[in-house]
UniProtKB/TrEMBL annotation:
Cofactor(s) in the UniProt record: heme b
Lineage: Bacteria, Pseudomonadati, Pseudomonadota, Gammaproteobacteria, Pseudomonadales
Transmembrane segments: 12-32, 44-66, 87-105, 136-158
Membrane-topology descriptor: Multi-pass membrane protein
One GO CC annotation: plasma membrane
Membership in a protein family: Belongs to the cytochrome b561 family.
Location(s), subcellular: Cell membrane
GO biological process assignments: respiratory electron transport chain
A UniProt-annotated Pfam family: Ni_hydr_CYTB
Residue stretches making up the Cytochrome b561 bacterial/Ni-hydrogenase domain: 5-170
InterPro entries noted in UniProt: Cyt_b561_bac/Ni-Hgenase, Cytochrome_b561_oxidase, Di-haem_cyt_TM
Statement: the UniProt record of this protein carries the keyword Transmembrane helix: yes
Protein name: Cytochrome b
């Protein structure tokens, strides 16, 4: 295995990080902003969500095809397990969030971006359930991103074991 992630994976990682953080802030703004720009925020949220769904599928395919760097040999087994589990959780949430949004819009009878087909029949009860799940998963995603960032900083600033450097193309130390 290489000491760093494939450049395409690094690019996808940072592009998706930027888009996910944007989505979280747009989502919060949509909930609290009922001004005329509300519909613009909703449309941007939908389009970025769709882009993220495509990007995560591409990212999973690239990661399966090119692999990822090995974790440091001295990393305790519990931390090794936590690293792998947290990545699976992140990938799962990156898939689930846009799919929940798509299903929610379908069940609510709302227009879908790019004339996508509805995933579910219109049903207000399903819409309410999916909307609540989408909101709670957004909070969980934000918390997981913060933990991911904290772990990366521990690797880069405290352990200095190359894990952060494997995803960061610039200087770490």
């Amino acid at each position: 295995m290489n000491a760093t992630f494939h450049p395409l994976l690094r690019g996808l990682h940072w592009l998706m990080a930027l888009l996910i953080l944007s989505m979280l802030f747009i989502g919060v703004s949509m909930i609290s902003d009922l001004s005329p720009r509300h519909s613009l925020l909703v449309n941007v949220h939908k389009l970025i969500g769709l882009a993220l769904l495509v990007l995560v599928v591409v990212r999973i395919g690239v990661r399966v095809f090119v692999g990822s760097p090995a974790l440091p040999g001295d990393l305790p087994s519990a931390q090794r397990w936590a690293a792998k589990a947290s990545h699976l959780v992140l990938y799962g949430m990156m898939l689930a969030m846009p799919l929940l949004g798509w299903g929610m819009l379908s069940a609510g009878g709302y227009p879908l971006p790019l004339q996508l087909p509805a995933l579910l029949p219109q049903d207000i009860r399903v819409y309410a359930l999916l909307r609540q799940a989408h909101g709670w998963l957004a909070y969980l995603l934000f918390a997981t991103v913060l933990l991911h960032l904290a772990a990366a900083l521990v690797h880069g600033l405290i352990r200095r074991d190359g894990v952060l450097r494997s995803m960061w193309s610039g200087r770490v130390n």
